[in-house]
Design goal:
448 residues; alpha+beta; Rossmann fold; Dna Ligase, domain 1; D-amino Acid Aminotransferase, Chain A, domain 1; 4 domains; 5-stranded parallel β-sheet; 5-stranded antiparallel β-sheet; 15 helices; 24% strand; binds adenosine monophosphate; binds glycine
Length: 448
């Protein structure tokens, strides 16, 4: 790989910092727009917003960028890939139409239906009144109410009963933040099970499935509290073994990519499946059209071969010609450190201490999710999810220990995190080995 390859990463969170870290290791020179205080240390930040399409096209053109990689969904849904392609620039990500897989839950359901991909049963409504009428006529049961469009992760209400579902429908109708997203309303059966994230990189024909992860969406330990963008992740998750991953690829990822192509909306980029592992098998909760955050951070530290080669191959539609990626043995854990108030309004501008001490721990990488540089060069907290402290280890237990050792070095007033990232995996592995021990003891007994 020539060291002069120049990559532009669009976005400014932990996912983009991790992508910048990895692509630099792959030999690229990296620009990030707009980036954060963390990306400033390893790449060049360009002060352009992730949604300012004309300015991003200018940066890519003027700076001789070979490949642009888009982190967040908003520019994808707004058509950044179409704008770059029209300008003759190479870019990794889906077109605006293909990004509707994330941008419109109704479009997503139509594709799932075409591909015969398992998902929750649902009904679609075009008005609050129609949704209300449907709920009132139905038996009282757990229900999920969703706004059709992008609502920054807030347009989903998982409801215990009809009363809560009716309240959710009313709030979609009355709250101005949902006005655009709630032009369509979905009412879905609630799925029960374990939630996992499986991502694949695809050029629209070939897919490369990445190791499975588990996010931690609830704010507090034990999955309590409000839903967030994700308070931590670990990789790989034992809830998805090799056999189940092959099943997910065959029954969910491949049929979705084919259904998109048949619908004349070929999907290139990261296909992210949010899955519920139900008693009837894995079912799709949602698709995202990008790397998950914080999943991306946990993934990048395990990625040994060149990510740049894969992204290049997708941009050139020749993914079938690339060797499958190589992953480091062991596991990774990412712990999100948040500012006081998250997921509500947060206090910004506090100086963060201990970043160097944390990063000096072997196996620990501190990815910045929402930081900026202060006038005196100090790093300031600049949002809710502020840091994604990530560690690799030979085992999940070791990775967890290291990640929390990193967290302990870092402080700013009001900083907090979940203390139980990856514990579900440990409990699951203990239960599995206890079951295996029982089976082998039984086996021995029978042979005697
Ligand atoms: P979404 O944005 O569609 O992924 O929904 C956000 C979160 O709501 C998911 O990560 C799940 O935890 C939960 N959720 C969404 N749909 C369902 C469903 N049908 N049953 C149970 N939980 C759901
Ligand atoms: N971690 C969930 C997401 O990126 O949507």
């Amino acid at each position: 790989m020539s060291p002069s390859r120049r990559v532009l990463i669009v976005g400014g969170g932990g996912r983009e910092h991790a992508l910048a870290w990895k692509l630099r290791r792959d030999g690229a020179e990296v620009l990030v727009a707009p980036g954060n205080a963390g990306t400033a240390q390893i790449a060049e930040n360009v002060p352009v917003a992730a949604t300012d399409m004309p300015a991003l096209v200018r940066v890519a053109r003027d700076r001789g960028v070979d490949l642009t990689v888009v982190g967040p969904e908003a520019p994808l849904v707004a058509g950044i890939v179409d704008a770059f392609t029209a300008a003759g620039l190479r870019i990794f990500g889906p077109t605006a139409r293909a990004a509707q897989l994330e941008g419109s839950k109704l479009f997503c359901k139509q594709i799932l239906h075409r591909g015969d991909v398992p998902t929750a049963m649902f009904r679609e409504f075009r008005s609050v009144a129609a949704a209300r009428e449907f709920l009132e006529a139905r038996e009282d049961m757990p229900i999920v109410v969703k706004a059709d469009g992008l609502a920054a992760g807030k347009g989903v209400f998982v409801c215990e009963d009809r009363e809560a579902a009716l309240a959710a429908v009313e709030s979609l109708g009355s709250d101005p933040q949902f006005a655009a997203a709630a032009k369509g309303i979905l009412i879905e059966e609630r799925l029960d099970g374990v939630e996992v994230s499986v991502m694949a990189i695809t050029d629209g024909r070939t897919i490369v499935t990445l190791p499975p992860l588990q996010d931690h969406k609830a704010a507090y330990d034990g999955d309590q509290g409000p839903n967030t963008g994700g308070m931590g992740a670990y990789c790989p998750t034992p809830f998805v073994d090799a056999e189940l991953l092959a099943d997910i690829e065959a029954r969910i990822l491949v049929p979705t990519v084919h259904a998109m192509r048949r619908a004349k909306v070929p999907f290139q980029g990261v296909l992210y499946a949010g899955l519920m592992l139900t008693a009837q098998g894995p079912k799709v909760l949602e698709f995202n059209a990008r790397f998950g955050d914080p999943e991306c951070e946990a993934l990048m530290v395990l990625f040994e071969s060149s990510l740049l080669d894969l992204l290049d191959a997708v941009a050139d539609r020749r993914l079938e010609s690339v060797e499958p990626p190589v992953w480091r043995a062991g596991a990774s854990v990412t712990v999100v450190m948040a500012s006081a108030g998250y997921p509500g309004p947060v206090e910004k501008g506090r100086a963060i201490r201990g970043l160097e001490a944390a990063a000096a721990l072997p196996g620990v990488e501190v990815f910045h999710a929402a930081t900026k540089l202060g006038a005196d060069g100090s790093v300031l907290a600049d949002g809710g999810r502020t840091l994604a402290v990530t560690a690799v280890g030979d085992s999940l237990a070791r990775a967890k220990l290291l990640a929390y050792s990193g967290v302990r070095e870092i402080r700013w007033p009001g900083a907090w995190c979940r203390k139980d990232i990856s514990d579900k995996a440990t409990a699951f592995e203990l239960a599995s080995s206890a079951r295996a021990a029982t089976v082998s003891t039984d086996g021995q007994g029978a042979a005697e």
